[in-house]
Amino acid sequence: MVVADVVTEFIEGLVETYPGLQYLDGFPEVKVVIRADASGATYDKVAVISGGGSGHEPAHAGFVGEGMLTASICGDVFASPSVDSILAGIRAVTGPMGCLLIVMNYTGDRLNFGLAAEQARSEGYKIETVIVGDDCALPPLLGIAGRRGLAGTIFVNKIAGAAAAAGLSLADVAAEAKRASQMVGTMGVALSVCTLPGQVTSDRLGPGKMELGLGIHGEPGAAVADLQPVDVVVSHILKQILSSVCSYCGASLSFLTPCRLPLPSRKT
To answer: What's a BP term from Gene Ontology annotated to this protein (predicted)?
Structure first.
């Protein structure tokens, strides 16, 4: 396996599997996946674009489709996509209704998407941006750059995509996405750290240990603890997300299980 080809091969496989998707001219240097039925010149709805570093599949290219993303901008593994790639994606799918950029709260993503948005506006495109920072592992004051963007971005993508599909204006789609981003909170639990293709897996987490709030790129979490029964882990996570420190509240909850964790369960 050639490490540099990992992202390219993922995109090729995705597009070959789903005929409703395509990639832009310039691939693989420009790693942009778009809906095959979305053409900027004629697209009559708000375009919803997200993206970021690869290595978190199915995010974000796997979320391109009707009622969700119009396009996904893919960087290399754990690397923000370039300004040129983001701008190419905007130009490809943005019509008269404008474009909403959904950006996870990481410095590189915010910088590159922000620069691309400024350039697109200077070319006459209508652009709005929503930043998603849903990580509840660390109190706000302990996060220098603010909360990290995590799996809660999926909800923001879906709500924005549904609003765009319904024909709402750019301002209304952005407002719905912003409200969703303010209402979502996420905390993860990991039994091992992430592994980059072609590199040795870290042994920082030993057997029988788990890390609460480990970052999706291997950033330190809130604490390392002994492995606990799943009900204890879930209870701790919910208390953190719903605490006054994190400022999330609501009468209903939704749960995402992005991967199976072999946590021990209690015998009843």
So the answer is: glycerol catabolic process
Give the model confidence (pLDDT) of 181-226 as tens digits: 998 888 888 888 877 777 777 667 788 899 888 888 777 788 888 9
Report pLDDT for 264: 44
CB 189 within 8 A of CB 210: yes
**In which band, very low, low, confident or very high, does the pLDDT at 261 lie, cut at 50, 70 and 90?**
very low
The CATH number of 3-183 is which of 3.30.420.40, 3.40.50.10440, 3.30.565.10, 3.30.310.170? 3.40.50.10440
Model confidence pLDDT, tens digit, residues 104-158? 999 999 999 999 999 999 999 999 999 999 888 876 655 466 788 998 999 999 9
Among 89, 75, 82, 88, which Cα is nearest to 35's?
Answer: 89
Instruction: Provide the β-strand partners of residue 72.
Output: 33, 50
Quote the radius of gyration of the chain (alpha carbons, Å). Answer: 19
Where in the sequence numbering do the catalytic residues fall? Answer: 217
